[in-house]
Amino acid sequence: MAVVLRGGITGGFLHQRRDTSSVITRRISSVKTAGGGINPTVAVERATWLPGLDPPPYLNGKLAGDYGFDPLGLGEDPESLKWYVQAELVHSRFAMLGVAGILFTDLLRTTGIRNLPVWYEAGAVKFDFASTKTLIVVQFLLMGFAETKRYVDYVSPGSQAKEGSFFFGLEASLEGLEPGYPGGPLLNPLGLAKDIKNAHDWKLKEIKNGRLAMMAMLGFFVQASVTHTGPIDNLVEHLSNPWHKTIIQTLFTSTS
Fold first, then answer.
1. Which of 33, 89, 111, 224 lies in disulfide reach of 39, CB 3.0 to 4.6 Å?
2. Which residue has the higher pLDDT, 251 or 125?
3. How far apart are CA 67 and CA 46, in angstroms?
4. What are phi and psi of 54, to 5 degrees?
5. Annotated binding-site positions for chlorophyll a
6. Strands laid side by side in the 23-27 sheet
7. Whole-structure pTM over 0.70, yes or no?
C-alpha cells in the first residue's frame, strides 16, 4: 500500500490514498516501515499551488517552478507554453532589477546621501548630458537589438552563440545553453550553471525570486498610487507605529 506524504511530513501523520495518478515516486531513506526497517521507496505527492489539487496534464513538473498553476489554461498549447515560460523569465529578471534599483535609490534618497527623485518621478528628470528624446532613441535601439537577438535565439536555439552572430566577436562570450539562458562569461560570470541540464535548482531559485519581485513591483505601484511616497518611507512610517500604520489603515484612510 502506497504511503502518501502531503506537502512533506507535517505533524507526523501519514495518509493513505487510493488515487495515485498524480503521485511521484522518490527515494527517502529516513522513513521507516511498521516493522522498524527502512522503506527506501515511498510515494510523495507532488507539491501544487493549492494542496490537494491535481495539476493539468501539460504541467508535469518538469519546468522550473511548476506548481500546476494555470487557472486560465493558457499553457495547453505546447508552443504557447514555451513562449509563456520565456515571457515569465524575462519579466522576472526585469522585476528583480527594478526592485533592487528602487530600493537602493530610495535608500540613498531617504538617508540624504544623494539628492534623488522618488522612483515614480525619476522618468521626468532632465539630464544635462543628453536630451530626453536622445535617451529614448538610444534605449529603443539598445533594447530593440537585445530583444531581437533573444527572439531569434528562441526561434533557433543556440544560433546567437555561433560565430558571426554578434559584433566584434561578442558571440564568444555566450554559450547558447538554451533559450533564456545564454550563459558564458558575459551573462554567467560566476559559472553557476555551466551544465544547464543539471541546473534545475538554480532555475528554481531564479524563478521563485523573480515571482516574488513581480509581486513586490505590484506592491510598489499600489504604494505609490495610495501613499504618494517611496517604499522606504512607507517602511519607516510603519515601523514608527506598527499597530496603527499598516496597509489596512492606509487603504481605509485613502478611500475615506
1. 33
2. 125
3. 8
4. -80, 125
5. 88, 91, 205-206, 209, 211, 223, 238
6. 4-5, 41-45, 23-27
7. yes
